[in-house]
Amino acid sequence: MTLRLSKLFGMDIYTDRAEYKGKIFDLVINLEKGRVETITTEALRARSKQEAKKIISEKSIPYSKVKAAKDIVIISGVKAEPVKEEEDQHARILHRRMH
Question: Judging by DSSP bridges, how do beta strands 20-23 and 12-15 pair with one another?
Fold first, then answer.
């Protein structure tokens, strides 16, 4: 699937069970791997590492869950999961940028 990143911003996100999850607000890109890692549905403005973890875990969707993107984004069912090591790393990076 090929799509311009700029087209993703503001797109509605739905699960494959037609549950609305929000709009794409931002993207976390892994420059070393050359791929989008995470979609966020809220601004990544964190005052603490704890707050950054909360945003990453509750207001973000792993890009690997994206099944299709054209007029809307469809993701496979997303369940609340514990924060993974990679998400913890994103939270640390986000917290450093904010301070």
Answer: antiparallel
